[in-house]
Amino acid sequence: MALDLFTVRSIKSCNLLEMNKVPIVFAFDNNMVMPACVCISSLLMNAKQDTVYDIFVLYPITQELPRDGFELLDKSFPNSCFTFIGVEDNLFSGAFEIRGINALTYYRLLIPELIPQYAKVLYSDVDVIFRCDLSDVYFNTNMEGCYIAGVNSLSHLHKDRAPYYRDRIGIDPAKVIYAGNLIINSELMRADGVVKKMLSMIKDKYQFQDLDILNIVCSGKIKYLPPFFCLTTDISEYASMDREKILGIWPEDEISHAMHSGIVHYNGKKPWKGVCINFDIWWEYYRMSLFFNERDYFRFFKNRLEELDGLSLWKRIKVLLRYFVYGRRTY
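The chain above was modelled as a monomer; its predicted structure follows.
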């Protein structure tokens, strides 16, 4: 499958520690450079000494993606290297867009063709904080016979999503996985021509875009991972407020592991924009990163405090109740 690409590779090669090299792909544009830097910082901070991350960045070729932050990461973490791959806009001309999510979300569908040097790769969105090394899940996940691996999206527990998947798309809502953190069996997908099939569907009006396409095309060839691999807002909320509903999906030890050290995915509200579940984890990693700015940090929390000061007494009580019921729970 021919794709018109432009690639720039960092000066440093990734030849060291070949056996422990973990390829991981991100896709974003100029609007997400700062969150991407914090995300990748958290990945590299938690790397084992013998883990090498071969990092690929997919971005719109029409944009001049700032490289300063990534060059800083490249120099500061010796076990990492970066490849930037510009994707032509015409590949996604007319792709369905909804809820302000543009065609860039479909970039992950191209990964098997864009990075042919790996049989298996990881993919992650950048509204994510890593709290663990990924070499174990990468090397120890057997992908034989499976196109992708990910975490159950709990769609069958949502009254609005379950009928959508069951009745409109025709797949079991209990088997839908999130698309924000994936292991991709590129070798098998290339052999079976899966990328071409997925790209033929990008103009169809699927409510959850690439997530729906991946789940439809890969149905029956999906490997299900523990929740630590994609700890979303939904999983965090169920684990804290209604754990019994998800104990039938994952055992207690896997849920606790996810809450303690799982990959936090902010698939709803973004912590750099406002208060949301697990926002404190993002800001903790922002403070530890090479990109910490005292003024931005102070401004964010000052604005949040001013918002709280403007709340009525009843709303303040509700905030305190949520804190003591939800925020204080330990595992």
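Residues 1-9, 326-331 have pLDDT under 50 and may be disordered.
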